[in-house]
Amino acid sequence: MASAAKVAATTASKFINPFLSKPIVPTFKSTSKLGVVVSAGKMKKAVKVRIAGQEWNRDIRKYFPSSKTYLCADPTSSLVVGDLIRMSSGWRTSKSIRHVVTAIVAPYGTPINERTPIPTESERIAQRIQQRLLKDVRRAEMGKIVAKLRIEAAKEKGYEVPGLEEAMRNVRIMEEREREKGTKGQVQVKGGKEGQVGSARERRRVEREKTEGERKAEKKVMKEARERTT
Prior knowledge:
CATH 2.40.50.140; 3 domains; about 40% helix; Nucleic acid-binding protein; ribosomal protein
């Protein structure tokens, strides 16, 4: 027993948090492009940008105009149709959005000084780190080891780690909004069982509120039920 405890202590002393040598939010290689906004205001914090180009026709042996369109993130909703902008790749915000606006080169209509400023790269990274830490605080409360390690690394690097109340604030706001919508996010009665959860979001909320002891008790009951059926 003493040797096992000694080995465990030695292993713990040699363990190095892998997130100490990594950034809290990974960065990727990016390229800069110039394009014209062709659609704005139809998506939340996103616009469609057209980039002019040329395509070589090997039969005619001549270049022809060939444009490409991209979905571009607009964090402050500052762009309008007709703006000439500079955007950067390597900033994924959804499945189809992998670019973000970095500057308005030539505005169309409203002057730049009358619009919401475009966030700089450092401001965008700081906001993403804050969102990452908020998510890690919620996951650490659920017992996720990776989230705990990342929080420890953030503290050692000098970042301010938010509290659980702040991390859960946006989640509660979204839940309240869904409850107000009516059928979405509210508890429904099905098959005579009152209190049955009626949406995936509500089920996740109930799961988060369970304690570690409740989760272990549920696993034990399910295991005993499987053993009785076999």
